[in-house]
Specification:
The chain is α+β, with helices and mostly antiparallel strands. The protein has a single domain, classed as STM4215-like (2-Layer Sandwich), CATH 3.30.2000. Helix content is about 25%, strand content about 40%. It is built from two helices and five strands. Strands 1, 2, 3, 4 and 5 form a five-stranded antiparallel beta sheet that branches. Strand 2 and strand 3 form a beta hairpin. The longest helix is centred in the middle third of the chain and has 17 residues. It is elongated and about 50 Å long.
Amino acid sequence: MTSAAVRARTELELELEAAGIEATGDAGSFYPQPVGVLIGLPSLVGRTLGARRFEIPVLVVSGDPLNSNERVAALYALADEVAGVLSTAAYRPTQYRSSESPEPRPALEVLVIVTVSEEG
């Protein structure tokens, strides 16, 4: 049996894939070029009798420094698309750190609430 948290994360990945947005939950193989989408780990934020509600960060990460309007525009365009597909109205600037780069990468964090049934 798969945990509710894993099912919630998988649901997001499938929604993005259906919309033609490539996303991964595998931080070890994630390399945004020029931008990429990484699905983070779920936080349990609520329960009902038959379901669990999770908040999941979805990071839209730039592989390049944001040193031009075109790069900034590309990052925000993808974040807008991700937010639209996942039906959320907010995102915020953040940074993404990986083991392959000593410098943090610019990113936008889209927080998504996903509700999944207790039984999978």
